[in-house]
Design a protein that fits this description.
mainly beta; six-stranded antiparallel beta sheet; 21 strands
């Protein structure tokens, strides 16, 4: 009986040992290239005629496999910023106008700062004091003086005004953009402040460009009069400190269409209480970029022994296959690299 128990224990130990070995197995990957009259391969460098498919043979059966072609935006690198030396120009473009009322009813400012530490977003008292303290201390730098904002139009057919700012001085810095709307008189309509464009553009030396719209700025309202229970803001019943609206609530920001760079703070009728609100971005890295993307070749649900890719432009590319095995207890990655010389 003891012998049977010992055998059973050994079998169970072998079984679980085999399972653990499988779970802890490091990823394996080997890649070769099919050659023909338009594709040659010396073990590292692939020379291929433009427009000719390159067929990769894949061995090792990794759980996940991603291909980076080496083309712009698809290089294997974990970058989040672009070296300033690669940027030809950097600019912020803002298009806006006042609508309804007269501009002497409000005192608006558009600010920038590379010292602002960012909003807490969960402590309204601290945030409201912070934006005002930076203003009182002169840390906010005015981008558009109020006298230049001092125009008003009676209808929506107004011609918006566009401003373009050179941002090269802020490369490798984190800057915050803030808009302050403050009513100073209510003998006439406090006008709507309407934006139809706001984006950052980096022109690169290689002729490409990167554009980041307002929807990526993390713009957050700081509704300074949220505790005043103003009658023309009664319809805003939730998140009164940092919230926005989808309609036309007086003195509250509407960011519903910010994906198209269109947003506004709604006007207030003559005689209604003075409005006061900020709209503050997250700290922005001007020379930021999206991480390069790879192409998914396979995942754990698939079995794959080949992959085909076609280069359509002449050039030299560093191509990479990234393989990964992963489970709850273990993760392993490896890469396989090629130089691809694309010729006419």
């Amino acid at each position: 009986m003891k012998a049977y128990k010992l055998i059973a224990i050994c079998v169970i130990s072998l079984f679980f040992g085999a399972c653990n070995d499988g779970l802890d197995e490091d990823v394996a990957l080997d890649v070769t290239v099919n050659t023909n009259e338009n594709v040659s391969f010396d073990g590292h460098i692939i020379t291929v005629k433009k427009g000719t498919p390159v067929n990769f043979n894949i061995a090792g059966d990794p759980d996940f496999l991603t291909f980076f072609s080496g083309e712009e935006g698809y290089k294997y690198r974990e970058r989040q910023t672009i070296d300033p030396s690669q940027i030809k120009s950097s600019s912020l473009t803002i298009t806006l106008y006042y609508e309804y009322g007269t501009t002497d009813m409000v005192d608006s400012r558009i600010y920038i700062s590379d010292e602002f530490t960012g909003l807490y977003k969960d402590d309204f008292v601290a945030d409201s004091l912070l934006v005002e303290q930076y203003e009182n201390d002169g840390i906010w730098q005015s981008m558009i003086p109020n006298e230049e904002l001092g125009y008003a139009f009676p209808t929506k057919t107004s011609t918006p005004q566009t401003y373009t700012f050179d941002m090269t001085q802020y490369l490798n810095k984190r800057v915050t953009i803030a808009i302050r709307y403050k009513g100073v008189k209510n003998t006439a309509v406090q006008p709507r402040l309407y934006f139809t464009q706001m984006h950052l553009t980096n022109e690169l030396n290689n002729g490409s460009s990167l554009k980041f719209g307002a929807s990526s700025f993390g713009l957050t309202p700081v509704n300074m009069k949220n505790r005043c229970n103003l009658s023309d803001q009664a319809t805003m019943t939730t998140d009164r400190e940092y919230g926005t609206v989808s309609g036309g609530t007086s003195g509250i920001w509407n960011l519903q269409n910010i994906g198209t760079e269109t947003f506004y703070l709604h006007s207030s009728a003559a005689g209604n209480p003075l409005k006061y609100s900020w709209l503050v971005s997250d700290p922005l890295t001007i020379n930021s970029c999206e991480p390069d993307q790879g192409t998914k070749v396979k995942d754990i649900t698939q079995s794959l022994d080949s992959y085909t890719y076609t280069y359509d432009k002449v050039g030299i590319y560093n191509a990479t296959f990234l393989a990964r095995n992963a489970n709850i207890d273990h993760s392993s990655t490896t890469t396989y690299n090629f130089v691809v010389n694309v010729v006419e």
